[in-house]
Amino acid sequence: MFLTSTLFLVTNNQSQPGGIISIYGMTTSPTMPFQMGAVLKNIELRGSTMGSRKEFTDMVKFVQEKNLKPIVSRSVSGGLDNLEGIDSLFEDMKAGKQFGKLVIEVSKEQDAKL
Fold first, then answer.
1. pLDDT score for 42
2. Higher pLDDT, 86 or 46
3. What is the mean pLDDT of residues 1-18?
4. Which phi and psi angles does 71 have, rounded to 5°?
5. Quick one: pLDDT at residue 106?
6. End-to-end alpha carbon distance in the chain
7. Nearest C-alpha neighbor of 41 from the set 22, 13, 66, 68
8. What is the average pLDDT across 59-86?
9. CA-CA distance, 82 to 104, in Å (whole number)?
10. Residue 43 CB: number of other CB atoms within 10 A?
11. C-alpha span between 20 and 32 (Å, rounded)
12. What pTM does this model have?
């Protein structure tokens, strides 16, 4: 089983009904097992493909060599329980106030399960 496929199976099992799984790139395989359980839970799979494995490797190397970091305008913590904070990020977008990324912190890095 390929990494992307394995990651999908893990996130599918941890997803709430009606959840969205976002996947970018299909650099390891053009196939993705989509289990009936995901359909029954109304899981939505969103994603985009990118270039070849070599192009992805070159991009990662470039980011590392140049020490590139995304620009973050603002982030809110508290995950999906912080609806007021999330709404304020949408207000920033509507008003065109942000320059970089607007981030919802789901969990701190040390709490991450994956």
1. 76
2. 86
3. 57
4. -85, 125
5. 84
6. 18
7. 13
8. 90
9. 9
10. 20
11. 16
12. 0.45
